[in-house]
Amino acid sequence: MIKLLIVDDEQIEREGLLAILSKGFPDLVIEQAKNGKIAVEMADEFAPDVILMDIKMPGMNGLEAVEKIGSAHPDIKFVMVTAFDSFEYARQAIKLGVKDYILKPSKASEIVATVGKVLKQIEEERKSLESSKLQLDALQKVLPVVETDIVTQLLFDHVHEVHLDELVKLLDVSTENETFAMTVLVPPGSESAYSAVKDKVRQIGSGWVGALNGRQIPIITFRDPEKTFRSQAVTMARELLSVAKSDTSGWFVGIGNVSASLNQIRQSYQEALIASMDPTLPVKYRFYADTPVLGTTTTGQLAKQLEKQFFERIRLGQWEQVHSDVMEFIRQCDNERADLLQAQQRVLELLWVVSRVLQEMGIEIDTPLFSRQSADYRQLRAEAGLLLDRMRQSYSERLERIEPDTIQQIKQYVAEHSHEDISLEAIGKKFELNPFYISKMFKDQLGVNYIDFLTECRIEKAKKLMADPERSMKEITFEVGYNDPNYFSKVFKKMSDVSPTEYRRTLLGKKG
């Protein structure tokens, strides 16, 4: 429905326009005002889409009324109605943003044509607005999926630069911003807390939440330059812990160091995991910087390299090496004649790191604990070896439960559903596997990361659809699973070395 207001101090002029417009546009809702002041009042009450405004009227003239109404209702369109002797006024009005003017007297056909142009413009703007709203709604629905996948890929995989830049742009964040990782450990049986933590981060508005893995929730937090790192992180940790209300037993927040860019956030995440290795601490959050170095003689960069190596070996299932690393650590403590009780605690922390990484892979195990205080280093080696063997067994049992052709089943599923908003989390639920583990399977068994494989499926589908000349490029964009034609074009060119238009021209040319 479009509403039109006729403003003229001469009744005969108003009724003449009313008759012409009612005949030309039967669906138009039309009201009248006999001067500028009444027009201003009716703009509020009647809310017209377009106003036909006479210029010369007693009291408030047409130009004054346009200025007043336009400032309060910028979307209303104006068509000035004027005689030849006030043509100069009409020119001024157009400078104020008036869409067109009608000269008195005009033929009915000229009036219908002039008003028709404005009505057409209003209809086009409404369609465009509706289309934008639909796209915005679609984007809002897909953003949580994008967010989860980005966090997963950033923490566990290499992300193709075009994907990272474009996806991050969707979330309105610069890849150059400083960030830091946090990991929230929730108690067994409290997996429902995931939604509450996600809502809390969204409410704070300063981070992305990854998929729940085991009992751990990874979070990438954006630095607030107005606060110190510690102040921001402590506030965030307390907010996250408030989800647990009064009972925080089993909850813990690990906080990694600040990362200069998103491309380096994986290191911060590993630090957050190490920081959360002892959830029994009275204060339920800890900074990695406050965590003892996992070694006795190693310091600084070397200690970091060893930590990273330790993580990778666990993730890759290199249990002989993991066992060797732990035994080497005990040997160092023994050689340095370190206090046995302190050494046992440090070894336990190493084993907790192993259990955290296994939980991250979806392998639920009890937190390893020594059955008793070791009497000597020989006994410490034996106890540590026993706990490692139990975790290794859990890892092997998990692998055995996964069918050999699982990755092929997932691959087929992704290919068949690539046009949907398909996330690692959704695939994880479908195949009852941890999203992080699926990401690892893609990389290990197919040699590509998940987003690259999904993109390949979509681009291949797009190429097949391009063979149909009846389909527009915009239709193909949406049909293969993208929401933005510009993004689709950029990804297509990155993957195929030619733009979609160039590819289609060649394709259809060959067919011709």
UniProtKB/TrEMBL annotation:
Molecular function via GO: DNA-binding transcription factor activity; sequence-specific DNA binding
Protein keywords: DNA-binding, Phosphoprotein, Transcription, Transcription regulation
HTH araC/xylS-type domain residues: 408-506
GO biological process, one term: phosphorelay signal transduction system
Domain Response regulatory: 3-119
SMART domains: HTH_ARAC, REC
Superkingdom of this protein's organism: Bacteria
Residues carrying 4-aspartylphosphate: D54
Protein name: Response regulator
Species the sequence originates in: Cohnella candidum
